[in-house]
Amino acid sequence: ATNFVIEGLKATIEGKEILKGINLEMKGGEIHAIMGPNGTGKSTLASALMGHPKYEVTDGTITLDGEDVLDMAVDERARAGLFLAMQYPSEIAGVTNSDFLRSAINARRGEGNEISLIKFIRQMEGKMKELDMNPEFAHRYLNEGFSGGEKKRNEILQMMLLDPKIVVLDEIDSGLDIDALKIVANGVNAMKSEDRGFLIITHYQRLLNYITPDYVHVMMQGRIVKSGGPELAHRLEAEGYDWVKAELGITD
Ligand code: ADP
Ligand code: MG
Ligand code: MG
Asked: Whose CA is nearest to atom 6 of ligand 1?
């Protein structure tokens, strides 16, 4: 079964330490949520996991099924089964969504094991239907002129087609209306499996009404300061973060 372990992870951006020792262990079949105030390093954690060049990991380890993730380049991480849906998906001029998806799938599958065009189109069209996406999105340039909701749905489409082991969703709920939120949540729930773990980063508990986490972690000032079950998310929604700060003696 999938086993993803983050130990003592520290990371800096432009010399400033943002992650100050993150510890987290996830297994296949589990859904973990990370919640926390703005600016605490949630997106930095997601980027560091994926190997974004802007973030320098200065200490700690990340392993996926015993393999050293920090030793892998970005594309190797994707091939190993890490997937990140970004808070702000970028536009790629001149590359259609379907071209992008097919090369991402083939990168994940590896050389000599490429998906046939027919099979790819069949899979893509099937998943787009599940996500209630207009078929024309396949032929549009990646994220260009997509609304916030369309971008998020498109990230979920990528996740479905790439069949990753560890899925990191960074604020996939931001900017979604309730119908789009349900579609995204259904997509995630349909992808739940014993071989796949989810790390869901969210500012609001709303998404967690539709995707029930097994564990909820609170991140503050670059650390996971508290962990619990789904009830923790409800308490944060009702009471905010001040009580956690008070409990831990954090002042800012
Ligand atoms: P969160 O996702 O929890 O809102 P971020 O990881 O985006 O937090 O940001 C954590 C901290 O790192 C913030 O203080 C932010 O200003 C800083 N930061 C994030 N990205 C950059 C960057 N590219 N350059 C400089 N500082 C950054
Ligand atoms: Mg933020
Ligand atoms: Mg963020």
From this structure: 41
Instruction: Encode pLDDT of 37-60 as tens digits.
Output: 999 999 999 999 999 989 999 999
The CATH code for residues 3-90+165-248 is 3.40.50.300
Assign residue 116 a region: left if phi > 0, alpha if psi is -120 to 50, beta otherwise? beta
Enter the tokens of residue 186: 């259904």
Residues 163-197 have pLDDT tens digits of: 999 999 999 888 888 888 998 899 899 999 999 99
Residue to substitute in 10, 13, 42 for testing ligand 1 pocket (most ligand atoms within 8 angstroms of CB): 13
Q: Give residue limits of the domains in the chain.
A: 3-90+165-248
- Give the ligand with the smallest distance to the CA of 22: 1
pLDDT over threshold 90, residue 85: no
Q: SS3 of 37, please?
A: coil
Q: How far apart are CA 2 and CA 245, in angstroms?
A: 33
Q: What ipTM does the predicted assembly reach?
A: 0.94
Beta-carbon contacts of 168 under 8 Å, excluding residues fewer than 6 positions away, are: 46, 49, 50, 82, 83, 84, 85, 199, 201
CA pair distance 158, 148, nearest whole angstrom: 16
| Closest ligand to the CA of 45 | 1
- Average pLDDT (116-136) is 93
Tokens for 243, please give them: 């009580």
